[in-house]
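Assemble and predict.
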Amino acid sequence: MTHEGLISALYVFALAAFLGYQVISRVPPLLHTPLMSATNAISGISLVGSIVTAGAGHGTTSTILGFVAVVCASTNVVGGFVITDRMLKMFKRKEIAKKE
Amino acid sequence: MQIYFIELSYLLASILFILGLKGLSHPETAKRGMHLAEFGMLMAIIGTLMHHEIVTYTWILAGLAIGSAVGLAMGFWVPMTAMPQRTALSHAFGAAAAALVGVAEYLKGPAHLDTVTMSALGFEVMLGSLTTTGSLLAFAKLQGMVRGTPMTYKGQNVFNMFLLAVTIAIFIYLVINPGSMTLFLVMAGLAFLFGLLLVMPIGSADMPVVMSLLNSYAGLASAATGFVLDNKVLIIAGTLDGFSGFILSILMCRAMNRSITNVLFGAFGSPATAEAGGQQQGSMREVGLEDIATQLAYANKVVFVPGYGLATAQAQHAVRELADVLEKRGVTVKYGIHPVAGRMPGHMNVLLAEANVPYSSLYELEQINPEFSTTDVSVVIGANDVVNPDARDNPSSPIAGMPILEVDRSKSVVVLKRGQGKGFSGLENPLFFKPVTGMLYGDAKDTLTRLVQAVQHA
């Protein structure tokens, strides 16, 4: 990584940390479990790194490691989003909850 | 041209992720927010598939297919009570993915590893490895495959610190001399071991904190991957995840009035701390089901205080049925939820929402505490430490200063409990001996079902 690259990566990191703090501290305790499964699914974006590792053909070991990483990360992405959706569907307002 | 398309897909994903998390500030906007985040993820994956370094798609597609199948199965079939285990497992997967990509990057050869990249890579592999094994052990404890009580031995903290120091020393050596593959693998191995040792001494009651911390580590490992690959969306998503876990750990610690160091190294819930509570004077007053039913039926306001015991008894639906018959009689029903009720942050809210309790009836600690003085009956179901008045009144109590739900201020308290035993912390609870409190022993689900019938006939 070049020095310019490092500096711009640090900017991104610092701003994301600041923004994350602002956004996440507004999530009510009511939704803390969906928050955890949602951030989990989102950080499954490491899938993009795993995909390149699995497909770049840098040797058998790298390909296998990449393949296992793709399995792990895509499990998190798919599972995390499905579960978050399932949980959020259960949170109902009073009138709607009563009808069911 | 292609590189712009990929980078733009990542930028779009980053924006949609942030909007998605912003949506979680309210239950009404949360679903739409998640759909945005899902769309962002899809874009980022499609963008990545066009990456020029990719020469073969076989392993990628196979991995995506297997991962999606496992993810879908887990997503649809994991029951809400098992959400903590599922989450622990997904922390392990996320961290493992980061660690594996890190090892693969290292194997490309030390030639391209300058000081900065090697630092990020070492951090990624170290954090990824320890989170993988730590989360797997947390999973095993939550699933009941390993005993939930803390496992301690003499000199544990000293040994753990020593191991961590050795791991970090190897990490620093590698940053200066990236060439030694043996040391690199030793570092990963030690990190795997450290993850296990870190979670071993932590008891079930402290799981909400540990879950949040592992969440934070898994996120930071992903962010480190972003530094290694110079990939901004990875840095952003990993940092959001890392900070979310960090904020949750702080909130959970505050809800127990403990520091993170105390949770990690204190081995709370071990026999040594349990004896500090002392013996309680007086006796518990057992009350009859019919009496309680009458009290509830003619009350103006009833507050339910659920704890993890409610979930283990699978009594969420029974409690909602009782609330329904009471509301039909004009009783105001609210639920007081302590932040550490359950095995992970917010777990109790999800369990009650699943039983069709409207979220507007779920109250946080700060909201419900001022209401207890006007509450006729507080019903404590399978909760113990979170309603222990010693935390407020007795400065020498091991849980002194922990914020509690002040049920003892209400006109009458009913405690539904399996038996006369103590909670997981092993502390005596003076609430059970107060004149205002009546004890109702038995399985919570069964007791609540019988209460529903008794209230209907009252």
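Residues 82-265 of chain B form one domain.
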